[in-house]
Amino acid sequence: MPKIIRDSTGKFRQRPHYEQGELDMECEKIVCEFLRSLYGKIEFPIATDDITKLIEKHTSDFDQYADLSEYGESVEGLTEFFPKGKPKVSISAKLSEASNYENRFRTTMTHELGHVIFHDYLYKMELIESGAASIQICKRDDIISKSKYAGARDWMEWQAGYACGAFLMPASHLKKTVDNFLATKGADTDGLIDAVVTRFQVSKDAARVRLSVTNHLK
Amino acid sequence: MSKNVSFGSFIAETRKSKNQSQKELATQINISPQYLNDIEHDKRFPSSPQLIEQIAAALEIGPDYLSYLAGRIPEEVKDQKLDQATFQKAMLAFRKATGK
């Protein structure tokens, strides 16, 4: 269970404070149970198509080819929260239509899934009084959280960014990849990043950040 | 009476209940995932009755109800906002009565 602390951003009265291990555990449980329900086994990388199924399982509506231009050039995903029912996720068609953006499509989808899983109940408590919907808009630079103190606009974006990496590269599977690499190839940072890129179908940037926040990169 | 179920949302919900992705269904009926996404979000409509039949066959549902949701049924019937089960019964009764 996360600690509940005061929200200094003013968005909510209180907010959950998750330790990284808590986010890791929850994300791994969600993605592994889902893969097992589909295939009876867990294999990585998770297919892009399976990520869409996972999002559909947790949302009332998922628009993979949305026109988000009204929110600004750099907005690539958003999650709409409602007083009742599941949230709605929209991903910019710019990402889903272009094959060379597949990794960005994958990270944006899992980032929004982070908002859905970890923040829906907060909005529910907040919106139940007003009866209105609320939108969390996610810009390109916030999708992968660099650290707790940089690269994310606020704690919500940091949590969703961390969850993005934890869904695509679950902690125990990442550790196995790192251990195997170190045992066979030794300490080679670039090589390790490439091994994670290949194993989990993520960008070098996403792999580097995930290895860094999980203390696998010195 | 059904809730306000639309042509697109009915397809999306039926597809999801079969654990099928948009891409998988689109491939099965030979249209682009973008086109199916637009259909499911009621931004576009199937271009032909054949496509409605293809979607119905792929989702293993009767094409009549999909045609009904697509508005290819007389307005006075459409306005009744029937759910799938009630509609199928009505169609059966209609076919018995008319011999069609």
From TrEMBL, chain A:
Pfam family, one: Peptidase_M78
Domain of life: Bacteria
Domain IrrE N-terminal-like span(s) in chain numbering: 101-212
UniProt name for this protein: ImmA/IrrE family metallo-endopeptidase
Species name: Geoanaerobacter pelophilus
Automatic annotation (TrEMBL), chain B:
Any one GO molecular-function label of the UniProt entry: DNA binding
HTH cro/C1-type domain sequence ranges: 11-66
InterPro entries: Cro/C1-type_HTH, Lambda_DNA-bd_dom_sf, TransReg_Diox_bact_type
Highest rank taxon of the organism: Bacteria
Cleavable signal peptide: none
Keyword Translocase: no
One Gene Ontology term, aspect cellular component: cytosol
Keywords: DNA-binding
Pfam families, per database record: HTH_3
CDD domains registered for this protein in UniProt: HTH_XRE
PANTHER family: HTH-TYPE TRANSCRIPTIONAL REGULATOR, METHYLPHOSPHONATE SYNTHASE
Name of the featured protein: Helix-turn-helix transcriptional regulator
Organism: Geoanaerobacter pelophilus
